[in-house]
Task: inverse folding
């Protein structure tokens, strides 16, 4: 099912949470809503679920206007950050809940419900734990129960709010793969909210980046990383060194750096260079730096230090290019690629 | 589009809300508000004069004095007990702790009449110490000491049960720091613990005081109902009421009612000073 | 709800024993600690507790034990005593049920709704804790008497409240009102909204959400409040005697019977009835603790 949010505005106590957001999610897609806290990403998710209602704009499920439909009438699966499991019900009853509460005419028979619960528990790899209570499960297991419960109603769209936020690093990694597997197995349109760019880039088909209640960019992980639409996306997705300066006649100068800036108008501007795009340079090219910290992290060597202008920088070299590099070393670096945005 | 369905998932439909509020309002008016209004209406049935007279009459004044005296002994005593008990229970670990807490709470589960009865069985003429007390001409039952004892019993847990959970929650870190810096036990209590518990202590004492001034059943058993001597205010209300002196009864009741309003106001203010969601008695 | 991780589930069980355990010299009943004053405060606590509560309470038990089982049973379960228990327990039960029924929406309104005068209503709910029971008694008696404001409305319908068991129920409803409301409120406040939202997004109607999700979480607190209101009602005296009528075998409550026995200097008889009431109180205390322990299982 295609989901469309059109010109959405939503305020909380006069503080704008969403400010003219338009977004379309395609059938079967796995989309990440990525942004810092307060960017409005969770609000957008809750609007799609019918847990909040916008002041302006529309929410469409295919061509159907769902803007003001209640949560119970939308058939969406929502996975809460803290899982929101029913504590007094067993795992199986939790998963069956969405089917149990259906009107008699639409409710599957007891046997069908049991069968469906078994299937789902198998899908999330919790078979055999149906009789447990939520407080007898680990965090990762609770997360899976929440997922199974949301999937039980055959939702038209699956919505997950910071699905891995409350888990520790190792569980988080394995559940990420799990979510991708389950999405591919069920084919259900899925939207998840995260503030972790690594998570968004690894998992999603497309990423929508929000900042201050607006969408900055929507694109595939490669697009948002390689072709950021603006300074916010460039700084938020992946690490980047930042240089303030000016553009004159499509050339950027600032922080000891001179770059081609095709298509950028004259005036003050900001240049971003990713650490792995900083490479050793010949004399007459690039800028001088002093390395203060050199740390090997697997195949990559991280170099932190100051430019002659006193700006901090970070560069990543492949190991073989960093032989003999020690703190205190003077280097000459040049960007192999840079992004320049008018300020 | 049907606007009516734009209701948050955590809210009831408006008509259900209105229905609940109406039911609650009716219930509270019938059970709580009307009785309180009745007290003042009945007291002023013949105007302000007779009501004031009933309050100024010597027996009424004596009852007020006795009530104040009783509260003035019972409240500090129970506050002292409450602080000792809370210090021992909340700041130390020992076996049978839950059992001790249950014992401290016990007087709340005992009928006030039984509370009075136990002192009659101990100190009354036929009681354990009855003969000895008569020989030495000491009166406890049907006298002020009995009234104070019975009041102490029924208000026994008020301060302790406010302080114990609070002090348990606050832990022992600050006290351990003070002791390790060389402070004595008493100094630690005054400088470190007391500032943390003062609102809860006041709260407990406030509830303790309200119950001490209003206690009827337990005091009724041990008082002997001697006018001007062993009648507290609630007992005085009873006597006037049973003599069909309704204006007098409700006038004195009005004073107690005013006291209750003051208590509730102070209680609300204290809850602002230190919010908590405990159940009082 | 806090964020549960695999780690702190495991770490829940042994708390601070490992750090604090002092070298043990044989059997010890308390853990050594750096905080002074344990001996003194514990001594004072136990001494006062014994003098004020435990020794006098044991008097009532020893007194009734001293009279032999036959006399005890005939005093404790005479026909008059039996009807008094029936009224005390029956009326307390009905009053607790009424409070359970109305206390639930009251607590809900206090926690979830905004309305004018809410702070005043919040204070008023505690009135039964603050108002002397005798005052409540005479107020209720004149309000529900046949010439009273409410009693006058009910009289034409043939309903007599004052001086009947119905009056006892009204008085005990007044006395027990705060218990249900005040035990429910904190639990309702702690209910997480996202559980209700989860139910709704799974297709549950508001009614289904309330019945299947909210009510089960409230049940332990509800039953606790009910039990507390009941326990308080059973022993209540002051507010009841003015409205009850106090007719032997009809509208006489158990605590009143104790007073009557005392006035006739039948101390043993009074003690026997008191023991029965004490046993019921202890049973209620046990029940309340058991409910709390049960509720903690799901926390």
Result:
């Amino acid at each position: 099912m295609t989901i469309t949010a059109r010109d959405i505005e939503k305020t909380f106590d006069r503080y704008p949470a969403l400010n003219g957001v338009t977004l379309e999610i395609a059938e079967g897609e796995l989309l990440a809503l990525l942004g810092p806290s307060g960017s409005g990403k969770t609000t957008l998710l809750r609007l799609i679920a019918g847990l909040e209602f916008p002041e302006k704009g529309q929410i469409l499920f295919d061509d159907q206007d769902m803007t003001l439909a209640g949560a119970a009438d939308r058939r969406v699966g929502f996975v809460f950050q803290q899982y929101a499991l029913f504590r007094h019900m067993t795992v199986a009853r939790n998963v069956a809940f969405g089917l149990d509460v259906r009107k008699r005419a639409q409710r599957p028979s007891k046997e069908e419900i049991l069968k469906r619960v078994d299937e789902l528990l198998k899908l999330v790899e919790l078979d055999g734990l149906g009789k447990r209570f939520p407080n007898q499960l680990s965090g990762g297991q609770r997360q899976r129960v929440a997922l199974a419960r949301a999937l039980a109603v055959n939702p038209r769209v699956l919505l997950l709010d910071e699905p891995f936020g409350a888990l520790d690093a190792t569980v988080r990694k394995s559940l990420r793969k799990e979510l991708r597997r389950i999405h591919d197995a069920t084919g259900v349109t899925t939207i998840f909210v995260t503030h972790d760019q690594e998570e968004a880039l690894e998992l999603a088909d497309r990423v929508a980046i929000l900042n201050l209640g607006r969408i900055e960019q929507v694109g595939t992980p490669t697009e948002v990383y390689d072709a950021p639409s603006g300074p916010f996306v460039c700084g938020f997705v992946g690490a980047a060194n930042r240089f303030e300066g000016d553009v004159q006649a499509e050339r950027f100068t600032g922080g000891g750096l001179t770059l081609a800036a095709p298509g950028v108008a004259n005036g003050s501007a900001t240049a971003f260079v990713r650490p792995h795009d900083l490479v050793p340079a010949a004399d007459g090219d690039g800028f001088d730096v002093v390395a203060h910290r050199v740390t090997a992290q697997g195949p990559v060597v991280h170099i932190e230090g100051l430019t002659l202008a006193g700006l901090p920088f970070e560069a990543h070299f492949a190991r073989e290019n960093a032989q003999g590099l020690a703190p205190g070393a003077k280097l000459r670096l040049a960007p192999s690629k840079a992004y320049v945005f008018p300020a | 589009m049907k606007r009516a369905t734009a209701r948050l998932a955590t809210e009831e439909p408006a008509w259900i809300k209105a229905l609940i509020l109406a039911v609650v309002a009716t219930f509270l008016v019938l059970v709580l508000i009307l009785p309180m209004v009745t007290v003042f209406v009945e007291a002023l049935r013949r105007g302000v004069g007779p009501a004031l007279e009933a309050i100024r009459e010597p027996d009424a004044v004596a009852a007020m004095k006795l009530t104040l005296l009783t509260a003035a002994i019972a409240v500090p005593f129970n506050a002292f007990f409450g602080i000792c008990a809370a210090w021992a229970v909340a700041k130390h670990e020992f076996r049978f702790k839950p059992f001790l807490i249950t014992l401290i709470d016990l007087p709340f589960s005992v009928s006030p009449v039984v509370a009075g009865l136990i002192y009659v069985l101990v100190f009354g003429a036929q009681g354990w110490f009855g003969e000895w007390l008569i020989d030495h001409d000491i009166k406890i039952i049907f006298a002020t000491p009995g009234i104070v004892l019975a009041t102490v019993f029924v208000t026994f847990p008020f301060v302790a049960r406010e302080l114990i959970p609070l002090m348990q929650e606050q832990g022992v870190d600050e006290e351990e720091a003070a002791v390790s810096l060389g402070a004595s036990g008493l100094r630690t209590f005054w400088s470190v613990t007391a500032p943390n518990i003062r609102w809860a202590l006041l709260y407990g004492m406030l509830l303790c005081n309200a119950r001490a001034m209003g206690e009827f059943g337990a005091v009724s058993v041990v008082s002997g109902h001697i006018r001007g001597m062993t009648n507290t205010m609630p007992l005085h209300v009873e006597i006037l009421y049973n003599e069909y002196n309704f204006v007098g009864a409700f006038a004195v009741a009005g004073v107690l009612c005013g006291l209750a309003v003051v208590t509730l106001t102070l209680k609300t203010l204290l809850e602002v000073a230190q919010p908590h969601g405990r159940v009082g008695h | 709800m806090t964020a549960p991780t695999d780690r702190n589930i495991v770490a829940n069980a042994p708390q601070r024993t490992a750090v604090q355990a002092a070298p043990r010299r044989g059997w010890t009943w308390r853990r050594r600690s750096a905080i002074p004053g344990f001996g003194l405060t514990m001594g004072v606590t136990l001494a006062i507790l014994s003098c004020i509560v435990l020794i006098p309470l044991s008097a009532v038990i020893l007194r009734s034990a001293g009279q032999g089982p036959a006399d005890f049973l005939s005093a404790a379960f005479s026909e008059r005593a039996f009807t008094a228990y029936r009224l005390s327990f029956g009326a307390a039960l009905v009053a607790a049920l009424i409070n359970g029924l109305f206390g639930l929406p009251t607590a809900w309104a206090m926690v979830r709704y905004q309305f004018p005068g809410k702070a005043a209503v919040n204070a008023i709910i505690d009135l039964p804790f603050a108002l002397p029971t005798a005052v409540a008694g005479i107020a209720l008696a004149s309000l529900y008497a046949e010439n009273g404001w409410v009693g006058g409305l009910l009289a034409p319908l043939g309903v007599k409240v004052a001086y009947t068991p119905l009056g006892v129920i009204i008085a005990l409803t007044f006395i027990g009102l705060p218990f249900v409301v005040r035990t429910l409120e904190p639990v309702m406040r702690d209910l997480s909204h996202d559980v209700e939202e989860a139910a709704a997004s799974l297709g549950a109607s508001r009614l289904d959400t309330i019945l299947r999700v909210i009510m089960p979480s409230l049940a332990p607190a509800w039953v606790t409040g009910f039990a507390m209101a009941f326990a308080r009602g059973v022993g209540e005296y002051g507010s009841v005697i003015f409205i009850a009528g106090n007719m032997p075998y009809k509208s006489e409550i158990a605590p009143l019977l104790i007073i009557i026995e005392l006035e006739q200097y039948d101390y043993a008889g009074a003690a026997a009835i008191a023991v029965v009431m004490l046993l019921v109180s202890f049973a209620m205390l046990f029940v309340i603790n058991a409910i709390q322990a049960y509720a903690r299982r799901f926390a």
The two ends of chain B are 52 Å apart (CA to CA).
